[in-house]
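Table S2 (text version). Query chain:
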Amino acid sequence: MAHLRPRVNTGTSPGPGNLGRPRPPAPEDSYLAKVVKYIPAESVAGYQAALGFVPTADQPAAMPYFAIFLILFTPCWILFATKDRGERWAWYQSAAGFFAFLVWLFAVNSPVWAWLFGSTAVSAAPGYVRSLVLVGASMVFPLVERILKTFGLNP
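Corresponding structure-token output:
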């Protein structure tokens, strides 16, 4: 099964006497751990770093373009960075990361929403609505994954 997030995995347990022995399989993440992992940290960090680099006066014009780049880059990053040799592609995690990043951009009131939708209810939603959408989406993604596993689909 593809990893939810990239990990450094050398395939062996460290320490004297353990060289060359395969590591035991990692236990499945808890529900709460999965909730945290769906919002891609690499995309969030890239967006936050760009906010620090771009002058404040230029952010409304520049940040939507960078946000769209990150929105499109996120699923590709998750697909390719999390695949180990012999494992399946992480299609569900890629799609969930894509939507989770969109929800996160909505929650932090990114200018990408006003740029895409203009002055609509989406871009003018109050802060508590944004927070509730973020919490709700973070709870739905692991639930959908569990439901898919119940029906024999292994995301």
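Notes on Table S2: The CA atoms of residues 35 and 109 lie 21 Å apart. The longest helix spans residues 127-150.
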